[in-house]
Write a structure and sequence with these properties.
two-stranded antiparallel ribbon; 234 residues; 2% strand; mainly alpha; Four Helix Bundle (Hemerythrin (Met), subunit A); single chain
Length: 234
């Protein structure tokens, strides 16, 4: 587990990486000829979604490790990644709504969109996962139930990804790379790649910080339990 000093260094690097990404988004990438300045939301909107998917992949890995080998570390990784993934997916959904309103005059309450709907379903699944971790009785039964939800919930990730191909939807098809090559100018693609790396790095740092918090909470709970047993023994 990284030390507090290491986490501080990584946190600073993550902030600098996000600032570099912001500089590229607003100062380097050209303005889209059709959508104007609002198109710049794209870089963070898509990057946050991919970061969220990566977190939910960690939830699956940690959950499998727990169910297969009873790994407490795996369970800790899963619950740490689930929270960060939900934050990233929230950013993705919010930025998407902000982007879609001026471009499509879109109201999510009135017009159905496959990608938006399946993304919200994914948000609800992992929101439910966190509710299980928060309110279900602590113990191995809770861990097993959460692990099952975390594993099966990931099935919605490929559905979100393929939704633009399976249903008629407001969202466009692939916008990064197509069969004919890059689907956007090189400066835009470079800006996206830098932003994606920065967001993934930030996400990894947040998961590590959350993991550290979970370890400290468990240690505190053990100390409190030991103190209560000692008092009872007296």
């Amino acid at each position: 587990m990284p030390s507090n000093r290491t986490l501080h260094v990584f946190s600073l690097l993550a902030v600098l990486a996000m600032l570099a990404a912001a500089a590229m988004i607003f100062l380097y990438a050209p303005q889209d000829a059709l959508q104007g300045p609002v198109q710049r939301i794209f870089y963070l909107h898509v990057s946050a979604a991919i970061a969220g998917f990566a977190c939910f992949g960690l939830v699956v890995g940690g959950s499998v490790a727990y169910l297969w080998k009873g790994s407490v570390r795996g369970d800790r990784v899963a619950r740490s990644a689930a929270l960060v993934g939900l934050v990233m997916l929230t950013v993705n959904i919010f930025m998407g709504i902000v982007w879609a309103k001026p471009i499509w005059n879109w109201d999510p309450a009135q017009t159905w969109d496959a990608k938006f709907t399946t993304t919200v379903v994914l948000w609800l699944i992992y929101g439910g996962y966190l509710l299980i971790r928060r309110f279900a009785a602590a113990g191995r039964a809770q861990m097993r139930l959460a692990a099952i939800v975390g594993i099966f919930g990931f099935a919605d990730v490929p559905i979100v990804y393929e939704s633009v191909n399976w249903w008629r939807t407001l969202h466009p098809g692939p916008v990064l790379v197509t069969a004919g090559g890059p689907a956007m100018p090189a400066p835009m693609l470079q800006t996206f790649l830098v932003t994606q790396l920065a967001v993934l790095f930030l996400t990894g740092v947040l998961v590590a910080i959350r993991y550290r918090i979970e370890v400290l909470r468990e240690e505190q709970a053990r100390r409190q339990q030991t103190a209560m047993l000692e008092l009872a023994a007296e």
